[in-house]
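From the shared-data thread, chain only:
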Amino acid sequence: MSWTAKSTDIKNQLRNLNKVVPGMAKGFQALSKGVKEGGVLEFKHKEYVALGIAVTQKCEPCIVLHMEALVRVGASREEVGDVLAMAVQMGGGPAMMYAAKAMECFDELTAKAQAAA
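Structure, as tokens:
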């Protein structure tokens, strides 16, 4: 399955969950908005942190959602590579396997964005 298809599936799963527990969904959205809009770090840097955590926690849905955000804000392959290297340093071999998946995701989503432009 492609990363684009995974993204669609993940978003559909989240919509389904959010219908069942709308209060939780609204609370999580408020938390996300609060941490992404506030503070001294730029949004892009916060997404790099989220990507690193997603890799070390082995969360493919998180990887694709944060990678989409990074592609939208113009992250470079080299910047993503640095983030993935730090995730591997912190998470060892298992993180390296998910870092490889994350780079594949970046490449696919970047190619899709460039084709659409």
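The domain at 3-116 is CATH 1.20.1290.10 (AhpD-like).
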